[in-house]
What we know:
The chain is of the alpha/beta class. It has helices at 3-16, 49-66, 81-91, 132-143, 160-169, 179-188, 196-205, and strands at 20-22, 28-29, 35-36, 38-40, 72-76, 95-98, 111-112, 120-128, 147-156, 173-178. Helix 4 links the parallel strand 8 and strand 9 (147-156). The N and C termini lie far apart (36 Å). The relative contact order is 0.16.
Amino acid sequence: MNREELQIQIAKDLLSIKAVFFRPDEPFTWASGIKSPVYCDNRLTLTAPEVRNHVENGLAYLIREYYSDAEVLMGTSTAGIAHAAITAHIMGLPMGYVRSSSKDHGRQNQIEGKLERGQKVVVVEDLISTGGSACDVVNVLRENGAEVLGIVSIFTYGMARGLEKLKATDVTNYSLTNFDCIAKVAAEEGYIQLPDVQRLIKFRDNPSDESWIQG
């Protein structure tokens, strides 16, 4: 299976279990107040064994393809932890995860799992939207002496803000699938209407502009 075929397979998988769910005529409201035509919860992949198998083997493929020198996988807390663990098991690699902040008890760790200075690390994330959480993890790992090779994720929106954040952090992300691919597959599979695709792309390009709602 090549990269494009993998993107389509994962898109079909995520749609089939409603991990990614499009509702352009009845938008969801984000915590920020922005109206969104898409709902995404990749945690649902963990309770769908066939999809989970595709996802974790797909992440292993991306790491072998783009970060072949990886020595440790580090999940983002909390959504990336399970995916990092399963993918590390497939690849026979150590794994750990990075908390959003240091614990207030015990050893007060922010990085859980053994990490030695100079080790080559790949960050495992479930979703890239603004890129903030993944880039925060990259910075924590670098501050602790790791050589961060890059990020792998299940799905990326491809929003300008996220791309700018990744560039500013000087880190590369490779996703199993992306917003454009899922929107196209959703139309082909009958989850949405073909004219909705342009509405979705318009949202992706500028989430704060709600003119896409009018069609």
